[in-house]
């Protein structure tokens, strides 16, 4: 299983609702979570399939937010 983490500007449950269709399409439904309590608003994607980190960042930007990969 692959796990990717991103620092984002997704701040609240309303933001999560806005980005949900974009992330479901890119990462797969139920394969991602945003910790809005974390200062870095960390998006974690865990998937058995290969997830393209560039596509994840692009889909978050399409939703109106920013993301950068955390190593």
UniProtKB/TrEMBL annotation:
Residues 1-68 form the HMA domain. One of its GO terms (molecular function) is metal ion binding. This is Heavy-metal-associated domain-containing protein. It comes from Niastella caeni.
